[in-house]
Specification:
The protein is α/β, with parallel strands linked by helices. The chain contains 18 helices and 18 strands. Helix content is 39%, strand content 17%. It has a six-stranded parallel β-sheet, sandwiched between helices. Strands 11-10-9-12-13-14 form a six-stranded parallel β-sheet. The longest helix is centred in the C-terminal third of the chain and has 19 residues. It is globular, with a radius of gyration of 23 Å. The chain starts with a strand and ends with a strand.
Length: 467
Amino acid sequence: MSCAGGQLITDILGAYGIETVFSVAGASHTYLLDPLDQAGVSIVSNRHETGAVGAADGYARVKGSPGVALIVADQGLPNAVGGLAVAWHAASPVVVLVASPPRPLTEADRGIDVDKLALVSPVTKWARTVPSIERLAEYLHTALKHASQGRPGPVVLLVPEDQLQASVAPDGATAWTTAARPVADSQAIAAAAKLIVAAERPMIIAGGGTAWSGANEPLREIATSLGIPVLGNSLGRGQVPEDNDVSFSWPYAQIAADQADVVVVVGARLTQRLGLGLPPRFAADAKFIQIDIDAGAFHRNRPVDLAIQADATQALNALLAALHDLHTPEFSRAWLHTGLQPRAERIAELLGAKSDAIHPLQLGDELMARLPEDAQLVGDGADIQTWMYGVVRVRRPRGFLDHYPMGAMGSGTALAVGAAAAHREVSGAAAPVTVLITGDGAFGFHPAEIHAAVRAQLNLKIIIGND
């Protein structure tokens, strides 16, 4: 018994729970699109390859599993580089399946023939060409493995189009087992607990790695039972519902970070957004504990006092138990609230100001007053997004995503399309609203992707700050 290569890909994607794909597909995808459609997979038709990859990125960030984009090789792959770069910097598990011409048709002097894998290698975790139909299943499983395991990231798999219709033995449609995540060293956890107990003003920075690990429960318990404030950044926001008491957004609360004497960085890299981990954003004598699944994150821009390579959820649960064993008292957060008081007062002043124009803070404040609890937020733009950080609070895990850390303005539109598709999958028929807050300049980059949202009947609302 055999099946076509397109059916094989469909079966494997189904085994991994992928219910939506994003595409700028041509005739070369026919033998893949048909079985996908027959299997009930939602096919979102994008208008630009960066839009398709960006939508797959937004889908992955919201659903927590790989997003898949279908594009063609010669014209499409160069167009996709921008979307790949955004996903690469965001550590988002995106699988791009690229239909390429059959190998015998490759011309030695072809004008647009380029080394396609070299083109994308700087912005992918892994990029390969399937050498034969017999190895199609192995290569697709490997692509999904690289996208998802360890520090996630985008991968590119070139599939010669003749393989999509060629006959091959069925794979069995069983997802490869996931490797066990690294476990924190018990001595390192004990040392971290002692550092925190000896502190007066400990603080946790939660990055996107906490979302990929699903670390919201131990983070919430540490914040609420021990009073250690959690500052969420990017996809790490909402792991503990932001109440400006124990949980804050990093962009809003960072001005008080220099008062912390112990900083626990979980699933985040000490990039420019986090002040490089250096003064003046942090105190020169602050102790740093860093927990990350990827050892490459440690000692970036500054040495850390204690590096713990581990899954964020496992490490935080172990740390929480160690802190309870030491009978750690609840910490006072007065230092943080005092440090934030000038910012809170200034925001209140701007919100109360009378003007013929709508201040972006007022726009954000009105939005928060009307936004349902289950709404999905996507941020884009420059000025408008900076102001939104002052008032927008994220209430649930994976409830907010933006163009950080690359900062590619305009990428939010595609992210929102994918986020809305994933939000519909996760929430069921109710299809809660996804809201994109963007600027007039940023929206101008990829407005055609709204066509994809309309055709897919996604519940997407867009607010454009026109300054």
